[in-house]
Amino acid sequence: MDTDSFLMALQRFTSRRGTPAEILCDQGTNFKGGHKELQEAFNNLSPTLKSVLATRKINFHFNPPYAPHFGGVWEREIRSVKNALKTTIGAQMVTEQVLRTVLIEIEGILNSKPLGYVSSDVADTDPVTPNLLIMGRHDASLPLVSYPDSDLLSRRRWRHTQILSDHFWKHFIKSYLPLLQTRQKWKRDKPDLTLNSIVMIVDSQHPRALWPVGKVTNLLQSKDGCIRTAKVLVKDKTYVRPVANLIPLPAIPKDTH
């Protein structure tokens, strides 16, 4: 929570992911101090080096003071991750190696989550994910392995990490799904799902880090006239799912530049 800790975390991030163009954060003293330190270091460079590094300079965007809701997008996701981790690990003792492996696998789960789809190619519903933007491909993980909970008592640390990751996935999906379908009261009808919509199927029974995305091919109407069930085509397989488990994805315009 201090300036040095933030700068070291930023150094680890840039070494793995590259230098970000901008950072959005709150008014924490660690972030403000880190911004000041980087600015002073840049100002002390020679004019020649300054001109070379100017394009790699990070722009900090600070939320207004006492306005945590400005960071609502990431704050809510952090809360979901913390709650799922607390339920998954609880008071049990785990080694640093196990915990680090689980946390980095969680990073992979979150970065494989669909953000949307390219609107110009509806026939290909492969979603745009953070992993795709960062690495140029969707998934970089090893083949998933599931072990019974009884292996938690074994000395096999690898199996321990896989079981904890599975537990995290199940708890995270249960707490994350309601955030995608937030609804204030029930005073207004929510628009029905439409045919050919691109949706993500959210199901805790799916293997972890699997976010199936497909096209709605059929809408099943209830007796009251509302759409509560739909058929979704994912690649060459059709799923029948309640609308409550389907999240419409936004269309991302293809960059024409």
Automatic annotation (TrEMBL):
<dbReference type="InterPro" id="IPR001584">
    <property type="entry name" value="Integrase_cat-core"/>
</dbReference>
<dbReference type="InterPro" id="IPR040676">
    <property type="entry name" value="DUF5641"/>
</dbReference>
<dbReference type="InterPro" id="IPR012337">
    <property type="entry name" value="RNaseH-like_sf"/>
</dbReference>
<dbReference type="InterPro" id="IPR036397">
    <property type="entry name" value="RNaseH_sf"/>
</dbReference>
<dbReference type="GO" id="GO:0015074">
    <property type="term" value="P:DNA integration"/>
</dbReference>
<protein>
    <recommendedName>
        <fullName>Integrase catalytic domain-containing protein</fullName>
    </recommendedName>
</protein>
<dbReference type="GO" id="GO:0003676">
    <property type="term" value="F:nucleic acid binding"/>
</dbReference>
<dbReference type="Pfam" id="PF18701">
    <property type="entry name" value="DUF5641"/>
</dbReference>
<feature type="domain" description="Integrase catalytic">
    <location>
        <begin position="1"/>
        <end position="138"/>
    </location>
</feature>
